[in-house]
Write a structure and sequence with these properties.
506 residues; signal; alpha+beta; CYP450_monoxygenase_sec-met; five-stranded mixed sheet; binds protoporphyrin IX containing FE; metal-binding; 15 strands; heme binding; three-stranded antiparallel sheet; 21 helices
Length: 506
Amino acid sequence: VYHGCQGDPREPPAVSSEIPVIGHLLGMLRYGFEYFGLQTADQTDSKKHPNYPIFSLNMLFSKAYVITSPALLQAAQRNNKFLSFDPFLMTSTERIAGVHSRKVLKLLRGKQSGGDGIAGEIMHAMTPTLFGTALDRMNERMVELLPPFVDELGDAPTLDLYSWCQHAITVASTDATYGPLNPYKDKVVEDAFWDFESNLTPLLVNILPWLTARKAWESRKTMISAILKYYQNNGPDTGSELASVRYRRTRDAGIGIEDTARLETPMAIALLSNTVPATFWTLFDLYSRPQLLHDIRKEIELNALHVATDGTHIIHLADLRDKCPLLVSAFQEILRTRTTSSPMRCVMKDILLADQYLIKAGTLLNMPSEAMSRNQDVWGSTAAEFDPRRYMKPVESVEHPEDRKKDPRRVGGFMAFGVSPIICPGRHFASNEILGLAAMIALRYDISPESGVWTPPQRNSMAIVSIMGPLKEGFKVNVKRRKEFEEKRWEFQPQEGKGRFPLMIG
Ligand code: HEM
């Protein structure tokens, strides 16, 4: 528990809000975790947002420190054992998943907070299910499902590209995870999930949620009963290792089947809420740059497209990974420039960060990517620019000799998949899915915005857990089949043991 500001001169400087006392709290309710990033230095408004390496925000009953410098981010990483994610995990278990049993919450809570540490164990057990042969199996299923969606893309001349991404990714990702009895196969359950995910803020605020968060509350009920049915029909037996490991570990810990179903609701958030907007922005950022799109099409066509004797056009995923460095680099640049990742930890003990700044036990520590992703110490003088070749190794950039001097490793600045030691284990599955889809669409279709201009659409701040800028409304586009690839049969070919992408992590 934080006992108020002690006024220690070593504490980071406080930043005031326009509305006294409750301003920062209201800001968080309005903008979600993105609010912390909005407080960091901004070239257009440098007086209101002083360029401190760390500052504090008084939040009525608590205090949050916001780190904006990569050096202090690394200092925080060195003190990781005093920074905990557990309180957030428990809040999300209660408010998002809706688990209220004291006994179950104690089982799940971290050992350092007096619990049995089961939530941490389940998380730990998931990591190997998203690598190696388990990842191969999920990729195989996922890429079987995507081509029919891409085939249909050209059927209607105008469509909402965001809804299209949402439906295709939901079907392919949940089927690859849950198998033939996938509870999200039912469109009612799919729609319930997106109503739930897009309205999480009132659930988290938790004031009479059955009234104030009605949509999310009702949608969650629909999801839970579908997941329960999936368990009753032994769905995990025919699902991925990810689904069966989560089910088994939870049940083995002594948690009842209904609470196990509740605990499964946040899994769909991890699986979908970043991948969908990341797919949309990947398409948006490639199609809005005609020269880059042209270069990437050429790269894929030359290196990853194979034509079988019966004329089937096959995109090899391992070739996208190993032989299309521009595509992989541009994807990471899109993640760097679009992410609103803002890792948050609870401070468990007073820490003197970098021998200079005192951060006090019971406060929150936030590390918003807005500041880090654009920091010149990390990214050099082009930090503010979109450079699709930024991550290419020297040998890969024959056409661009100026890239030879670049060091592809950037410590402390790439935040899209989190910061060590909490790094997204689903990043390889997501990259296979997003890059496979983007590659096939790029070859087969021309896409232009219905409005005539690629103006970035508005984002939905109520979808508080997504860090990839989910949209508030859709984005209408015109789609035209490219002449050279009309009327062809298309497939993906995954390759055993080659599912991991060489991605940057923070
Ligand atoms: C482009 C897509 C994705 C992005 C940008 C992304 C991003 C992230 C980030 C930033 C974190 C760390 C959160 C924090 O520190 O507070 C995270 C954690 C996590 N992600 Fe992802 N993610 C993506 C896709 C996926 C997928 C497809 C899965 C599952 C198959 C997944 C599963 C997870 C899990 C389980 C964690 C928690 C890890 C832990 O606590 O140790 N993610 N992700």
